[in-house]
Amino acid sequence: MRQTARAMAPFVHTLRVRYHECDAQGIVFNAQYFAYFDIAMTELWRAAFERSYATMIADHGIDMVVAEATARFLGSARFDDLVDLEAQITRLGTTGITTRMRVLRAGELLVEGELRHVFVDATSWTSTPMPTAVRSALGRFAAPS
Amino acid sequence: MRQTARAMAPFVHTLRVRYHECDAQGIVFNAQYFAYFDIAMTELWRAAFERSYATMIADHGIDMVVAEATARFLGSARFDDLVDLEAQITRLGTTGITTRMRVLRAGELLVEGELRHVFVDATSWTSTPMPTAVRSALGRFAAPS
Amino acid sequence: MRQTARAMAPFVHTLRVRYHECDAQGIVFNAQYFAYFDIAMTELWRAAFERSYATMIADHGIDMVVAEATARFLGSARFDDLVDLEAQITRLGTTGITTRMRVLRAGELLVEGELRHVFVDATSWTSTPMPTAVRSALGRFAAPS
Amino acid sequence: MRQTARAMAPFVHTLRVRYHECDAQGIVFNAQYFAYFDIAMTELWRAAFERSYATMIADHGIDMVVAEATARFLGSARFDDLVDLEAQITRLGTTGITTRMRVLRAGELLVEGELRHVFVDATSWTSTPMPTAVRSALGRFAAPS
Hints:
The structure is a homotetramer.
Chain A: E1 11-16, H1 30-49, H2 53-60, E2 62-73, E3 82-92, E4 96-105, E5 108-121, H3 132-138
Antiparallel strand pairs in A: 1-3, 2-5, 3-4, 4-5
């Protein structure tokens, strides 16, 4: 019997909601979730490379810019909540990646979204293919197709 | 002679990019654009009602929450840039609205996105139809279908 | 034999600098350090009460507002730096507290500051003495006079 | 004929409080006032030079960093409030300036503070005297001693 495609666990980073991230409604301001997504990506990079994102830029001369971001808000995180940020790369392209983001509190899905990043040359800021080492490191957090 | 559908001008609010809204790349941080969208909505409400958003809540006992937000990043605004935030309501539903957002600098499109808002009862926070007065005021910034 | 004044260790909370907390100079934006101070206070409360700040408000019907904040900037934290936030209560008054804050990176002092908080009734927002239980819990992080 | 001390009007920049600048208490978060101070400085520079702060850096090869910031909180600005940011240079030194900041709403003083800036070489980031042209332009917003 052949092994079926194994659903890879997404990368998870947990953080605590800060007071000033909440608005006058007492809940996390919607734009703040996109900052959370960015934090999750930074930590995913650290885990993928066992080095930091800054190191990757220095080593490979490339940077990454956000081309598209989207989020659906299903529930609300509040001050002092511990939330899990789940990130899973759903498309590992030649010059870009797409990552599915989910924000959960104790298993309850609060927000789900998606980020599309494009690799650029760190000096010219023009689109550039991602280096093989980067692609292979990121593969660890890519969902099986 | 019949009057043809007139393309309504979107609502426009202009703001200047603040220093701390830019990140280490020297450009406006992606999550910040969603805060810009929120500012544009506040000003659209002020223009629609000739009164503030807070007044609307007090008068009608309803509030509005963001259900979905999306943005595509085509260019980058920088510190001290003057940017025009364009907002046009593309769907004026019974319990919610969808608004198309565009960020331009001197006519150049930098970001385009969409916000979907849902009306909720200000005390129970359950979905509620928007009052007729609200709907009719917002109609002024709705695109013709 | 008399007990000599024991130099109490300050409360320490460590955090990692987030990308969007840095400005176009590539360093943490000055106002952001005051948000760091606030985070340190939240964690100090959690440690003092072994419960959260929100619990304290619910239990005692009091809240705390910032009356004064100051910071001197000696160095610069950068993206991805791990910084230690040190908080030590230097004055435990009847209706308020003063806390000395320090931000360090690998032992290097980057920022030092001070926060003065005043206790207020959570409904009337008028100045109110801090409950005995609160004072005694905070005493753990107060510097010996 | 004696010259009488002329009380110079401080520089004033008016802004509207944004929704996400308020915290769960419904008032502007304390750290946000330091961001307001920064905005006031940017606008003071624009007024002083009739050119932008960025132009000054490009022309003179100097930058300015915050060495000290302080604020006393007397009242609270709320969402949608129009607040006046007053800035007056109280010390025009050789390598730095001190600016008194005040935040008012309809004449009511909400916050008062002070910023101390130091001029640095834009490449080496070492302290440097301010150019004569800069000093003379800033003089317009300096309080008489």
